[in-house]
Amino acid sequence: MGITVHFLDEKVNSVIHGFIPARRANHYKPSLKAGSIVKVDHFEVVRCSSMYKITDHPFHIRFIPPTIIDEVITSAPEINLQS
To answer: Which domain of life does the protein's organism represent (predicted)?
Structure first.
């Protein structure tokens, strides 16, 4: 159990699966708003297990205790909503 998030990599136009474990969900939930653009620092990148693969990307992002989420207010990139 946990929170599944999708990250859009604007440079290569791909979607990367992210996962926040249930034990850390309450810590990050206030920073996650639908439609917001965030910057995420200090996370792990791991290979996707074929059993849990929900995107075409070979890796996924795992939130760990030092992970930080900051909403991007200025200089936010343009996101193609069709992606």
So the answer is: Eukaryota
